[in-house]
């Protein structure tokens, strides 16, 4: 079995649907409260962790993380993209169906987003 980085899988997915990353992010809600509510739904974060991640990342970066989480870790439980294993794996990102703080940071780094 072959492997594909989540970043490459995202690039391929957007290309397949002829969508640019800019177009995708332009359509997403940039309201801080909406982004926070979405993060709370898919992530298991303390208030302090949520505050830290929100202060480090832009709304566009948070939206990119949210889209990627939904596309590759929530809606597709197989961990595969076109018969390739996506890494980081779901097990590295999520525990009990929710993204962990460390998983969120790992995913951000995998997408080329600078996070401490």
Note the topology.
Blueprint: E1 2-5, H1 6-16, H2 21-27, H3 32-42, H4 47-56, H5 59-74, E2 80-81, E3 84-87, H6 90-93, E4 94-95, E5 98-99, H7 101-110
Parallel strand pairs: 1-3
Antiparallel strand pairs: 2-3, 4-5
Helix pairs in contact: 3-5
Describe the protein's architecture and organization.
The protein is α+β, with helices and mostly antiparallel strands. The protein has one domain. Helices cover 59% and strands 12% of the residues. It is built from 7 helices and 5 strands; from the N terminus they run βαααααββαββα. The strands form 2 sheets. Strands 1-3-2 form a 3-stranded mixed β-sheet. Strands 4-5 form a two-stranded antiparallel ribbon. Helix 3 runs parallel beside helix 5. The chain is globular, with a radius of gyration of 14 Å. It starts with a strand and ends in a 6-residue tail after the last helix.
According to DSSP, the number of beta strands is 5
Please report the distance between the alpha carbons of the first and last residues: 32 Å
Spatial order of the strands in the main sheet?
A: 1-3-2
How helical, in percent, are the residues? 55-70%
Please describe the biggest sheet, giving its number of strands, its sense, and whether it closes into a barrel. Answer: 3 strands, mixed
Overall mean pLDDT stands at: 95
Q: Work out the radius of gyration.
A: 14 Å
What is the string of helix and strand elements? EHHHHHEEHEEH
Strand content: 5-15%
What class, by secondary structure content?
A: alpha+beta
**Total domain count:** 1
Count the helices. How many?
Answer: 7
Low-pLDDT regions: none
Note the overall shape. globular
